[in-house]
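Lab meeting prep.
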Amino acid sequence: MRELPAGTVTLLFTDVEGSTALLHSLGDEYADALAEHRRILRAAFTKRGGVEVDTQGDAFFYAFTRAGDAVEAASVGQDSLAEGPLRVRIGVHTGEPLVTAEGYVGIDVHRAARIAAAAHGGQVVISQTTRDLIDDSGLRDLGVHRLKDLTAPERLYQLGDDEFPPLRTLDATNLPVTASPLLGREQELAELVALLSDGTRLVTVTGPGGTGKTRLALQVAAELVGTFSGGVFWAPLAGLADPELVVPEIARTLPARDDLVGYLRGKQLLLLLDNFEHLLAAAPELAALLAAADGLRVIVTSRAPLRISGEREYPLEPLPPEDAVTLFLERARGVGKDFAPSPTIESICLRLDGLPLAIELAAARTKLLSPDALLERLDRALSLLTGGARDAPERQRTLRATIEWSHDLLDEESKRLFARLSVFLGSFPLAVAEEVCDADLDAVSALVDLSLLKPIAEDRFLMLETIREYAAERLEASGEADEFRRRHTDAFRSLAAECYARRVDAEAECSERLESDHDDLRAALEWLAAHDPDAELELAGALGWFWFSHSHLPEGRRRLTEALARSPVGGSVRAAALTAVGGIAGWQGDADRGPGWVGEGIALWRELGDVAELAYALETLGWVFFVLGDNLPGLAAFEESLELRRTSGDVLGEMRALAGVCQMLVAEGEVDRAEPLSRELLELARDRGDPRAEHWGHHFLGDCALIRGDCDDSEDLYRASLRAALPLADILETSFEVQGVGMSAAGRGDWARGLRLVAAGYAMWESIGATLEVPFWNALLDRYAGVAREGLGLEAEAVWAEGHALPFDEAVTLALG
């Protein structure tokens, strides 16, 4: 893509009218006609300075620095297509869209697209802002029109004197004018329009307050104006308190005061019922209307589903990150602040859960606060996010009011549960909510129905952070906060202890569960730091293996060292914490404290006579020495661990220690000794179903093949090792396999792929705060990456940069592919 013009830009949109019908009528000739249409338009637009922003199917999006060039390009393009079978509609609008890495964003882009959509094939329609910048001779004034973006009317002009039907703009409807067009939600908009166009009679858009249900539903209704002969009507229900008034309100809106059923019968009509959640008792009456009038379609917005026959619930999720940032930037521009996308703004949107209302309220604050200052203050989001638009309903003027609206609809038992569930910082399983908060299914269901609680991933639930903050205030006011935070902490201490005991025989299962509950484990650690430092150290020690295996190295080290400093407790609690923090420090390249901390842990385990934990700590010490390049002491530690485990009959532990012995032999270059032991390890792993040991077995055999220069075998072995390692979600182990595949590829002459993968491995280490200087591995990297660099010559640095920038998942895919 050429560099996009910035500042005042004229945007031009095109698409083919009736493309589906043309496809059927032209058959195989359609592809040729479409290609010729593209050639003609590209030539007309680029010759006059147009920059192609995007093309999708039969549609173009171009940008011009001068309005006159855009209008001339549109005119020439239409004239050139006049004799062909395709009729193209073109819309032209001038504005100041925001340029991002993905292209243009902002209201002006939406407005230009809407103008094009209003036109007919062969017609060029131009906005007032474009008309003001060009010679207006040859333009026909089409009058003021409401476009389907629902914003204020726009005066539109037609290029030339040809006769066309009336523009496809909003006709007789009571849909309200909005302050700005809908941003984001393209997929949701298309899905809802399709549902209501394909025969679905009743669609209920559900979601928590502030997700933009009303704005989306209004846009859906606007898109369908003209497709229902009986019209499209909007009935706002937020001001009603009595369910018995719903049907009379519908009748008043249509209007059909005397005989609503008679009025609806025989009509093709779309009705939008906005904010139904407090009037659910009226749902059966709505079902009766649908049964009596088969041409009626209804779209409802509600924080809870209606639970009537034929209903299609459409849960509306918060905005994805990119759309959330776009919304923030546009609303900030509305208060005179022109920001570019930045990590700070991304963090603001993330902190606000992607809720459109919260984002709009936050963006309004940029009139007084910089994004950095705003982010700092978002720790108390509810008090900051006030002062919404004066023409918005009172319950949408602040985020707190929007949440209170849902809260007030709960019964007392559900209100108590809502407050108690605020002790969970992340998603949580139903079973834990039952244990900690005395949750019952009916109360949980009530919270889900009102979108105060979000079901995710089987039996897990999530409370959005902005909603949780309000719930936490209710818990504090109840006087139950200390009791339920203690119960929450006790539950996660038990989970951590159970997973610690099973960290070898059920590593993948336990580490996945701890990752899912990591936010709540953090909350438990922080509560214990303030109330019970000895228990904090116990919990941190139980999580040390998880922080290591899931590559939370900086966080794990910080939490363990702080807990060790706060608590003087000794025995097994201190030994576990020292072993864990030493292992992490070693993988961070700390040659002083890594072996020293693990050594202190080993001394305590020897005093306690705990053979299993002593063997585990010796294995940890072996890996620390390996990372630091001190192979002989590392081999001695692994061999002692292996002997202890064989003596005690610990087969799984034996495999882990044997893996360490194999690694040290490989590091010493003793391939002939390492290979048979690695095959033995692989056989044991397969017999026992141990994915980590299987991953190691393949890896060491891959090392041996790579050392010998057999790059075909080594690549196959590293790939097998990578596949075995992926379920463990261990970035460190994955990074070695990615680099192993890269070195093998480089050795086979696939230099670019090889160098990309080597660079990607280094990026993985950096991302988790690991500092690795393993001498034998570095020697292999120098050998094979050096071959790749020499083969690529001047291209090598660019290829390295590409690999270093690869996201984790893409690097894994490249290695496996």
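Slide two material, second protein:
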Amino acid sequence: MVNAQVGRLAALERFREVNRTFPRNRELVEWKGRGGKMFGWLCIYVPEEIIHAAGVLPIRIVGYSQEMDLDDGNAYMYVNNCSFSRSCLQMGLRGEYDFLDGVVGGSTCDGARRLFDLWRQYVRTPFHHVLTVPRKYTGRAHALYHREVLDFKEHLEEYLGLKITEEALYRSTLLYNQSRELLHKLYDLRKLGKPPISGAETLEVLNASFRMPKEIFNQWLVDLLEEVISFHRQYSGRVRLMLVGSVLTNTEFVRFIEDQGGMIVTDELCTSTRYWGDPVVLDAGVSLTEAISRRYLNNFPCARMFPSEERFRRIIKAALEFRVDGVISETIRYCVPYAHDLPLLEKRLQEYGIPMLALDIEYGASGSGQIRTRVQAFIEMLEAKRR
């Protein structure tokens, strides 16, 4: 079990309250009460800055944070689609995202693309747009994606009857870059021998970041960083772990691993590092839309991107920087990009002497007896290897 010398953090409790009450948390209710529009986005390749600059609040569409009955989702999607997509659709069909004025997706995998199509047909959110996302980083790929971002901006302007100004886009870019910088500082604290914040607590912060205005989130994160440092909190565990793989929002799954003594100090998930990893680089010689496009296409890569080496390089770099003893990969069943990527990643990690445990789970899983046994055995193996 992870040992802790910690104090209760008021800022962290605020983030927990956002997650506990989502999608009816106070921040969204107040935004809607002022007549504000909210758009849901389905993939981290959707540029939030464009939505925000239009005066619209971007909200990430995710499924239930625990395993739930997915009868409605299963009725519209084959069960060999990942349970994340089916869980998102379930919430949409049951009206739990009825506050959204629009939905924006990316053609990143079959599950995400089918989810968008079914959402448009059956949930019927008023505005809908999908971006084509290349799988490469070539000059032609960047030109294609930039054109997709410009088309999205023009579609948004036409629908809302307004012009997204350069000034508004610049302000939104600075705001989102500030959020990324603050999250970077939070992760830097986890490099310490005894981090002041746990992996489960960090995921609470990240989940809340998708569910509230960034203006409020950034201020709360500043408060949290100040509290974390002033309280002299310390967590320690039997081993240091990195978590990689499919989309994850369930803090109980992370806490489950940490309760076995595996201290999760960093990660590679589209709900964490791959979401906030890189800033938009502002260059006088590059337009704002091109700078935003380059950031989203070149950000910490998803397993769908080719070649895979850039993703592996970043994972190994993080594993070394955070001094991890091992890596746990959680792959949602039928998540094809990450299932196919797994043997290649394991081979690259072996070259650096970093062991990996691969877990095949359902989205929202909190852990089971079988997973507990495998995690405990992995931790014991890492301890023996360290000796």
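Talking points for slide two:
The mean pLDDT is 95.
The chain has two domains: 24-167, 169-386.
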